[in-house]
From TrEMBL, chain B:
It is a multi-pass membrane protein. Residues 1-39 form the signal peptide. It is found in: Cell membrane. Heme c 2 binds at C154, C157, H158. This is Cytochrome bc1 complex cytochrome c subunit. Keywords: Cell membrane, Electron transport, Heme, Iron, Membrane, Metal-binding, Repeat, Respiratory chain, Signal, Translocase, Transmembrane, Transmembrane helix, Transport. SUPFAM superfamilies: Cytochrome c. It catalyses: a quinol + 2 Fe(III)-[cytochrome c](out) = a quinone + 2 Fe(II)-[cytochrome c](out) + 2 H(+)(out). GO terms for cellular component: plasma membrane. GO terms for molecular function: heme binding; iron ion binding; quinol-cytochrome-c reductase activity.
From TrEMBL, chain C:
Residues 541-555 have a biased composition (Basic and acidic residues). Its cofactor is heme. This is Cytochrome bc1 complex cytochrome b subunit. GO terms for biological process: respiratory electron transport chain. It comes from the Bacteria. It catalyses: a quinol + 2 Fe(III)-[cytochrome c](out) = a quinone + 2 Fe(II)-[cytochrome c](out) + 2 H(+)(out). Residues 248-444 form the Cytochrome b/b6 C-terminal region profile domain. The keyword Ligase does not apply. The chain crosses the membrane at residues 48-72, 117-138, 150-170, 216-240, 261-285, 332-362, 382-401, 421-438. It is a multi-pass membrane protein.
Length: 349, 260, 568
């Protein structure tokens, strides 16, 4: 045991001469050990020992308390009940854990020796002799296998090793991406005549029911049972639309090409999927007609063709062309003219 | 009295007198100042007429003498009693200073005055009426359906449990914990300020009550303990750093410190 | 002190413990390991426990994670919920993953506690990794021979991000679902393969019905296995290298000064584990976290205000928020390149991690230093490194704050648009300013150290000389204090060979050397040399009166007033 081997001053510095090197100070060595109260006073020692015992005892009580809490505090399904059970179990658990932790550390700090020890370090690099032997072993191995001489064999081995991962990768990769048919990005459930319905209730929307200043979250009208399938969730992820009704004179422009009308009497419908990275853009500010995305704050002007007025989005939200049917319900004229949501490499292809 | 008389030459006497005078003036003013309005509130004979007078005194500067709207404020023709009741009973109107939006503040009008103003504005054009107590009774609503509707229509601005959130250019969607059931209903119905309108075709009266039921449910706090403001991962992260890592580093400093 | 428990006794054991040890040693030669490690010395300092906090949080994550896997069902099948969960969820259509999250929170006793401990532990795990890396960076503990361990640690940081992100998405709620949707948007922006990558990840179109089971496998198998393996490597290298130590008397690159592993360090480390676990239990018991029933089951239409990821991903969120979109989507030969997504979500994080990976090697190169280092640097003694570190952190913090800009807006009554603009500018200006200021502060502190070594502490004692002049008496530093302040190397910029050799032929590689030299100048042009004994002696030759004065000798002036150190 190398207890408190203070290096003698000067041992670790480059100079060996007794005189002070004018360029470097000498290491004064490890500072002298200071005695603690528990080193000198047996009463303090006993006191600390009792404290550690007490802390362990508190920990025991915490653990027992946790078991008691488990049986005594049954959550009754209400917020209140679950909260009480969580607190009771958690606090008793914390007492049992912190008791052990604080006790162990106090024990080590006050009762175990606090003399500092000094270990030597050794250079990590292997010695030249060891290296030489290692290199020799490798050379012998290479020589023995003859890999350097037998070119064809080397090529065959490398080929086999390079090809075998395919047996694993091909089945995996071909299946992991479903049908790999990325053209699905281009189409949504909307088609000519699909009624617009309120999300999530599915009630169709009558144009006359919309007050100026209204915002409605819209899905295509589909059968109720379809709405309980996964396919619906995936389709909904592209099809959701935000519908607002403005004063017709406030509507400066929309995206309809020359000769067509995509909006109806101040009612405009735009894809709710942000053209930035696809968050649902949904914060409609009635007074400014701005639509704000809560994820990255892209802001679109609903009165002006959903143009980007702020934030990281680059393109306007695609517009859903709408009109009304004979019964006065809002219907789509067609699917979106461009893919909804974030840009992708083949978007314009 | 003798003691008082003895002290009237005291050095502080003028100060005390002045304070008393100020107090008296303030008190008299407090009683008399709103007299044009309060003096007549006893008579409920003609609410519309009273409302008109209140409107001319408090609102006409911005909304125009006939509530037709000006460049500074919108027309109030056809906004209905519900809108007035919402704006005035939450203290948003009359507005005190121009800003990105009218903040909530202590109501400036009594309930009676609010009702008179509402009656006046309702007389200008048909609009949504103030909902009845039954319509806004959350106990009658279905909190689960309310959760569904709130999530789609409201959570993007007001946060998932109604803790509020930011809008653009310094505007914000206020937290809903303290808002009365009636005001929640009216806000949906009338679409105050930045908020869009959710009329009865979009969210039916029953569904509005479901949403109120959901919001009332949130006032019980969280099953997991302190809600930390229900602001989501950012506030959780701040607490993890400050409380969690703070305590642990504190413990590490204690472990690493030499015992005395 | 119980040193007799070691198993390598040559005599026949008599105690039960001794017999057991003997049994074991005969079969495993464990005695050698105990001899090697039981009294291994570890230096003691609170900042050496930051990595421990990360390690212990990870252990807590494993423990609570096992609990949670017993009750969690990672299925995306849909069901109408009628269970023990809250009133607001009854009758709603949701995935089995979400429903089982509700059940394990509300029906399983202690389940919510375990879930909350697990999530808090994840946040603390990442936070502890970050502060641990800060300690390692600022003290230069990544220098030779520890460069590889720094790389292992940085990979662990990235794996921690992967573990956190995959776990956060498992409950299939609206908040994390929107996080996945953003991920999908980012993946789609990758040139050429983006659309196919999206199909690869989601098994078809987003969201599909595959992603939760896939993330589950990643979260409970792949990533934890990798983390465990790398923690093994990390700790093995730590033991092999022996821990670094702070500078001080008797601490050199050839020794390690501290306390023995057994029993002191075992007690302290074990105790620290229980303290970390205890604090996490307390947090899980009293502070709610990620109440998924507030967000509701995933539905692609809704989104909540305050849509943010957990804190360690906030820098990415902020990066996405700050990037202006105008003019940033390029169409090249009909193919779309979304720089407004690629730059903030792919390029910026790549640059940040590249800095972390490359820094130790760049610094070694510009320092021209091939020695082993086991004594840590005081951050002030390496001003450029400290400045770069603070600049890096500033960039990271600005991005994280930008990711919280909506909450900053509501809580400080500001406009979100203005905050975004301020952060856009600060992202470029902030790190540079932070670098310059930090470097100046470091150089200032070094000068202060020199000053202190040369002239000693101010004592506050004013002495008047016979000629009427006042001076403040300075007390010289003791040798430990002095050694701490003079024991460092102020590196100089690299010297390179001239452009042409003796015969005037142009040297190959000169341009490359020149570039490195320029970088080296950036690092070491400004430096403060440590005080040498000669300088101290020179200062004392005219300052010895301080010592005389300090010893309360006669303050008689013998060599003129100008030789006395005046208070500045």
């Amino acid at each position: 045991m190398s207890e408190n081997q203070n290096p003698t001053p000067g041992r670790d510095v480059t100079t060996t001469s007794g005189a002070q090197d004018p360029e470097r100070f000498t290491d004064p060595g490890v500072p002298a050990h200071k005695l603690r109260l528990t080193d000198t006073d047996p009463a303090a020692r006993r006191r600390n020992e009792r404290l550690v015992v007490l802390l362990f005892a508190i920990s025991c009580l915490g653990a027992i308390g946790s078991i008691v809490a488990y049986f005594a505090v049954r959550p009754d399904g209400t917020t209140e009940g679950v909260r009480l059970s969580t607190i009771a179990l958690g606090v008793t658990m914390a007492i049992s854990l912190l008791g052990i932790g604080i006790a162990a550390i106090h024990w080590s700090k006050s009762l175990m020796s606090d003399h500092e020890h000094v270990d030597e370090r050794h250079e990590l690099a292997s010695s030249p002799e060891v290296r030489e032997v290692a290199v020799q072993h490798l050379t012998d191995g290479v020589e023995d296998s003859g890999i350097a001489r037998r070119g064809v064999l080397k090529g065959a081995a490398v080929s086999a090793l390079a090809l075998f991962p395919l047996t694993f990768a091909v089945p995996l990769i071909s299946s992991v991406g479903g049908d790999w048919n990325i053209s699905k990005f281009r189409h949504t459930l909307w088609e000519r005549g699909t009624r617009l319905a309120y999300d999530p209730t599915g009630r169709p929307i009558r144009a006359a029911d919309l007050t100026v200043g209204s915002a409605a979250h819209v899905i295509p009208e589909v059968p109720q049972e379809y709405m309980e399938s996964h396919e619906w969730i995936t389709e909904k992820a592209k099809a959701v639309v935000l519908l607002v009704r403005l004063n017709p004179e406030d509507l400066r422009s929309d995206q309809s090409p020359e000769g067509e009308t995509w909006s109806y009497d101040g009612i405009v419908a735009y894809s709710k999927i942000c053209t930035h990275v696809g968050c649902p853009v949904a914060l409609y500010e009635q007074q400014t007609h701005h639509l704000l995305c809560p994820c990255h704050q892209s802001t679109f002007d609903m009165a002006d063709g959903a143009k980007v007025v702020f934030g990281p989005a680059n393109r306007p939200l695609p517009q859903l062309p709408i009109t009304v049917d004979d019964e006065g319900y809002l219907i789509a004229q067609d699917d979106f003219a461009e893919p909804v949501g974030p840009s992708f490499w083949e978007r314009l292809k | 009295m003798k003691a008082l008389a003895a002290r009237r030459h005291h050095r502080a006497a003028p100060v005390v007198l002045m304070l008393l005078a100020l107090l008296l003036t303030g008190g008299v003013y407090a009683v008399l100042a709103p007299s044009p309005a309060t003096a007549d509130t006893a008579s409920t004979a003609n609410d519309v007429e009273e409302g008109d007078r209140l409107f001319q005194a408090n609102c006409a500067t911005c909304h125009g003498p006939n509530a037709e709207g000006t460049s500074q404020a919108p027309s109030l023709v056809g906004v209905g009693a519900a809108s007035v009741d919402f704006q005035v009973s939450t203290g948003r109107m009359p507005m005190q200073a121009n800003g990105p939006q009218a903040p909530q503040k202590p109501p400036q009008m009594t309930e009676e005055q609010t009702a008179q103003l509402a009656a006046y504005v309702a007389s200008l054009g048909a609009g949504p009426a103030i909902p009845t107590d039954e319509q806004v009774d959350g106990a009658e609503g279905d909190a689960s359906n309310g959760a569904l509707l709130f999530r789609t229509n409201c959570a993007m601005c007001h946060n998932a449990v109604g803790a509020g959130g930011a809008l653009s250019e310094g505007k914000w969607a206020p937290p809903l914990y303290e808002v009365s059931e009636r005001n929640i209903y009216q806000a949906m119905l009338t679409g105050p300020q930045s908020m869009p309108v959710f009329n009865d075709a979009n969210i039916t009266p029953d569904e509005k009550r479901d949403i109120i039921a959901y919001l009332l449910e949130q006032r019980d706090g969280s099953a997991g303990g302190l809600t930390l403001g229900s602001l989501g991962p950012v506030s959780e992260g701040v607490w993890a750093w400050v409380v969690g890592l703070g305590l642990m580093i504190g413990a590490a400093v204690w472990i690493g410190a030499k015992s005395s | 002190m119980s040193t007799d428990t070691t198993a390598s006794n040559s005599g026949a054991p008599t105690t039960p413990a001794g017999k057991a040890a003997d049994y074991l040693d005969q079969r495993t030669s464990v005695g050698g390991a105990v001899k090697e490690f039981a009294r291994k010395v570890f230096p003691d300092h609170w900042s050496f426990m930051l990595g421990e906090i990360a390690l212990f949080s990870f252990v807590v994550l494993l423990l609570t994670g096992v609990f949670l896997t017993m009750f969690f069902d990672p299925s995306m099948a849909l069901e109408e919920y009628h269970g023990a969960g809250p009133e607001t969820m009854q009758g709603q259509l949701m995935s089995v993953a979400f429903a089982s999250t509700l059940d394990l929170s509300f029906e399983v006793r202690g389940g919510l506690l375990m879930r909350q401990i697990h999530h808090w532990a994840a946040l603390i795990f990442m936070a502890a990794i970050v502060v641990h890396m800060m300690r390692v960076f600022f003290t230069g503990a990544f220098r030779k021979p520890r460069e590889i361990n720094w790389l292992v640690g940085t990979v662990l940081l990235i794996l921690g991000l992967a573990a956190g992100f995959s776990g956060y998405s498992l409950p299939d709620d609206v908040l994390s679902g929107n996080g996945l949707r953003i991920t999908d948007g980012v993946i789609k922006s990758i040139p050429v393969i983006g659309s196919y990558m999206s199909y690869f990840v989601f098994g078809g179109e987003f969201p599909g019905d595959q992603i939760i089971p896939r993330l589950f496998t990643v979260h409970i198998l792949l990533v934890p296995a990798l983390i465990l393996a790398l923690i093994g490597v990390h700790l093995f290298l730590m033991v092999l290298h022996k821990h670094t130590q702070y500078p001080g008397g008797g601490r050199t690159d050839k020794n390690v000064v501290g306390y023995p592993l057994f029993p002191v360090y075992i007690a302290k480390m074990g105790g620290n584990f229980f303290i970390v676990f205890g604090i996490l239990a307390l947090m899980g018991a009293t502070m709610s976290i990620n109440n998924v029933w507030n967000y509701g089951p995933y539905d692609p239409s809704p989104v909540g205000a305050g849509a943010q990821p957990d804190w360690y991903m906030l820098f990415l969120e902020g990066s996405l928020r700050l990037m202006p979109g105008a003019g940033m989507e390029w169409v090249i030969f009909g193919y779309t390149l979304s720089l407004n997504v690629l730059i903030p979500a792919v390029v910026i994080p790549t640059l940040l991690f590249l800095f972390l990976f490359a820094y130790p090697f760049v610094e070694a190169k510009v320092t021209g230093d091939k020695r082993e280092h086991h004594v840590l640097d005081r951050p002030r003694n390496v001003p450029v490194r400290t400045g770069l570190g603070v600049g890096f952190l500033t960039a990271f913090i600005i991005l994280a704050l930008a990711g919280s800009n909506d909450l900053i807006a509501t809580h400080f009554g500001m406009s979100i648009n203005q905050i975004t603009w301020a952060f856009r500018i600060l992202f470029f200006v902030g790190p540079v300013l932070a670098f310059l200021i930090t470097k100046r502060i470091c150089l200032g502190l070094q000068r202060k150290d020199r000053e202190l070594v040369l002239h000693g502490h101010e004592t506050g004692r004013i002495v008047r000389f016979a000629n009427g002049e006042y001076i403040e008496v300075h007390r010289p530093l003791d040798e430990q204090e002095r050694w701490l302040r003079v024991n460092y190397t102020a590196h100089k910029p690299l010297e390179i060979e001239p452009a042409t050799d003796a015969r005037g032929v142009k040297r190959k590689g000169y341009q490359k050397d020149k570039r490195w030299q320029r970088l080296s100048r950036f690092f070491y042009e400004d430096r403060v040399e440590p005080v040498t004994p000669a300088e101290l002696a020179a200062a004392h030759s005219h300052g010895e009166h301080d010592e005389i004065a300090a010893e309360r000798k006669s303050p008689e002036v013998t060599t003129g007033a100008e030789s006395v150190e005046r208070e500045r």
